[in-house]
Amino acid sequence: MDPKNRLNEDESRVNLNISKVRSRPFRLLEDRVTLAHGAGGKSSAALVEQVFFDAYGNDLLAQGGDSSVVTAASLIDAHGSSIAMSTDSYVVNPIEFPGGNIGELAINGTVNDLSVAGAVPKLISVAFILEEGLEFSELRRIVLSMKEAADKAGVVIATGDTKVVPKGAGDKVYITTAGIGVIPPSRILGFDQIQVGDRIIVSGPIADHGMAVMMARGDLAIEAPIESDTQAVNGLVEALIEAADVRWMRDATRGGLATSMNEMARATGLAAVLEDSKIPVRDMTRGACDMLGIDPLYVANEGTFAAVVSEETADAAVAALREAGAEGACIIGRVEAQPAASVVLVTGFGGTRMVDMLVGDPLPRIC
Questions:
Q1: What is the longest distance spanned by two Cα atoms in the chain?
Q2: In sequence order, what are the beta bridge partners of 159?
Q3: How far is Cα 142 from Cα 103, in angstroms, rounded to an integer?
Q4: Which fold has domain 191-354?
Q5: pLDDT tens figures, 177-197
C-alpha cells in the first residue's frame, strides 16, 4: 500500500475515534454536587445533560443556547392578545415537605401568578442555585417533580441556568423562575373592575401549605398529617372565567388571604367584608394554628386563590370551581363601600374586627 494512502487511512481512523469520543454524552460520576459542577466545564455539562435535559428534554432546550428562540406567532394570535410575565424565587425550608417539594412549588407558583392575571401560561425558565454537597438523588427528585408539574399544567420549561455555591453558603437548593403567558383580548381583570356588591370567593381551604412546611421542620413537638395545597390553578381559573363575570383574582401566597384582601381594599378604596364562619379551614390545620397562636388568615397558600366576581354570577362561579375539582370553593364575603380601604371580619358571634396587613413573619421561608 502506498505509504501516503496508509497515512491518510490512519489519520481518518484517528479522526473518527476522536469524533466518537467527543460526541459521547458527558457522564455524571459523582453522587453529590461539587463546585466543579458550577465551573462551566465538563462537570457542568454533565449536570445539565444528565439531570436537567434528561428530565425536561424538549425542542426548545435542544437549541442548546443561553436563551430559547420561539416565534411570536406561537404565543400571540393576530387578534389583540397580550403577554403576561412573572418572576419569582423559592427558598423553602425544608425543600421536601408533605404534599410537595421546592421544585413542584416553583412550577405551580409561577403558573398560578400568570393564571390569576387572566393569562394562559405557556413558557417557564428555571434557574438553580445549588449548594455544594447536595445529593444528586435529591436533586433528581426535585427536577422530575418539576417536569411532572409542568406537564400537568401544560407549560414548557424552555430555558434555565445553574450555579453552585460552597457548602454553607446556601441551603441545598434555591430556585428562581420566570414565566410567560398569553391573555386573550376579551379578558379584562384588575382592581378598577371591582364594584360595590361584588362577591369574594376562595377556591378552597386556606393555610394548608404554611402549616405543612412548619410541621415538616420538626422544630415543634407537634405532629399533624397536614399536606401542602400546592397545585397549578390554571384549569380552575379557566373554568371560573368561563362561568362567571370575574373582576379580579389573586393567589393567596405569602401573607395569606388577609394580605390579598388588604391589597385589594387599599387599591380600590373599598371594603372587603369577610364572614369568619364561611372561610374554609381544615380542622387539623386550624388546630395546629391554634396551638401555635397563628391566625390562618395570614398563613401562605400555594394552590388556593381568591377572586372577586359579580353578585349575579357568584353562585355559578362556585359551582364551576367545584365541578372543576375545587370541592372547597365557596363565597366568603362581599365588597362594600365602607369602611373605606379596609378588611373587616364578621365573627361567629356577630361582632366585627379589623384584619390588617401582616406584621412580621410568623412562618419564615415557606415558599
A1: 105
A2: 125
A3: 5
A4: Phosphoribosyl-aminoimidazole Synthetase; Chain A, domain 2 (3.90.650)
A5: 999 999 998 899 999 999 999
Q: Which CATH code is given to the segment(s) 35-183?
A: 3.30.1330.10
Structure pTM?
0.88
Q: What is the pLDDT of residues 210-245, one digit of tens each?
A: 999 988 987 666 777 899 999 999 999 999 999 999
Using omega within 30 degrees of 0 as the cis cutoff, is the peptide bond preceding 25 cis?
Answer: no
Judge whether 111 and 180 are in contact, CB under 8 Å: no
| SS3 readout for 59-113 | CCHHHCCCCCCCCHHHCCCCCCCEEEEEEEEECCCCCEECCEEHHHHHHHHHHHH
Of residues 121, 126, 128, the one with CA closest to residue 85? 121
Cell for 251? Answer: 393567589
Q: What is the pLDDT of residues 75-120, one digit of tens each?
A: 776 567 889 999 999 999 999 999 999 999 999 999 999 999 999 9
β-pairing verdict for 156-165 and 100-101: unpaired
